[in-house]
Amino acid sequence: MEYEVVIGMETHVELDTHSKMFCACSARFFGAEPNTNVCPVCLGMPGALPVINKRAVEFAMMVGLALNCRIARHTFWERKSYWYPDLPKGYQISQYQYPLAYDGWLDVDVRDLSTGNWSEESVRRRIRIRRAHLEEDTGKLIHVGDKSYVDYNRSGVPLLEIVTEPDIRSADEAYAYLSTLQQIVRYLGVSTGDMEKGAMRCEPNMSLRPKGSDAFGVKVEIKNLNSLRAVREAIAYEIRRQTALLERGEAVQQVTMGWDENRGVTVVQREKESAHDYRYFPEPDLPPLEVDEAWLEQVRRRVPELALARQDRYRRDYGLSAYDAVQLTGDRAVAEWFEQVVAAEPSEGSDRRALAKAAANWIQTEIFRLMKAGGIPLAEIASIKPTPRQLAELIGLVDRQVININTARQVFEEMFATGADARQIVEAKGLAQVSDVDALRQVVSDVIAAHPNQVQQYLSGQEKVFGFLVGQAMKATQGKGNAQLINRLLREALKS
Length: 496
What we know:
Helices cover about 40% and strands about 20% of the residues.
């Protein structure tokens, strides 16, 4: 029997605010000494009163808008009973009845750039978003031998919980959904989305059912996933495990599974889970949250054009391939740098589409290569020495055949190292392309005279020798010869 996987995803995103959700303690806890970013409020001391972090609310609204959600105009905070030592109050301040954002959707592209079978065809899936609500994060338990310690630095950090409908149908779709969500929170600047550091944590809830059936199978939850790769591999493994059980006629048990990264397998953490009685009730120490039209509109204006929309625009307006569009929009800083190149004045006789295609090639080859060699993250592309205008100028020099592409690469390396303009470097080093027909005709004549054997091989039908002869002509001009002109003159000379 053929089975279909049904997956719903719960994702927690730590919001990158300066202070915690309900107090003034620093929310930048990573690497800090344990229990140094704490106060009476986040430690749950009697009489301490919480205060809402406005920036966290706005960050949550931005994510909700980016996920095409409806934003609640009226909501309130609730206490959720929580009997674990990593929240000292004994409860978590959260939202339950009226989440801040709800009824949204996210389109994801399930193509895998790591494969060699890249397709230009759209492979998009729409995942519905049930809710996105604000709450506070817990502390961190550290187990050493038979003792357990708790660090409350993380306790109270703003947390956005995003819950999908059970619309995901494969491990690849789960990967695409989470990578798109991670990209969105980074584009918005509301979270680092760093799974390895716990800034984004997810729990897939999945089940198998016979293909074509509408009924849900037995739900299994997977925890301890700290990377996008781990999410894909854990789901793929769990699909295989459950399929094998069903094919043997055995029942799938409702359990919580953990992911063992080293062995590449899921392991049972807890047996059958029942619904918890969290005993929600309105938080008496916080006022209701009211969102008026003016505030919502102000937040809406801060939501940038997101990656998927940019990809569509780059393909439509600039004629870029789907692959190039995806590569350029992976990081918002790269996309904006690219657009500044395209916005520069095009050189005489060129156009925006030609400039965009050339810029896409330069960014993906030379700029990415030199940034990687220099240990510069893509998010810091604005810090490199060549400006977008300078790259546009270099592209113009190639376009007008002032220099050839090989010389342009040499020039760009110096631009990257010094920040000098391309024209300055070309003039100072005498790198302008040789396009004088008579001079190049003499170079071609000398090459033919110096290599009679290769000329004879070409004339006898060995076309590949032509490249060797072109190379010799380029060498004679110290790489500055007009390659197109050399090709034409060489073929004319060989024909005669």
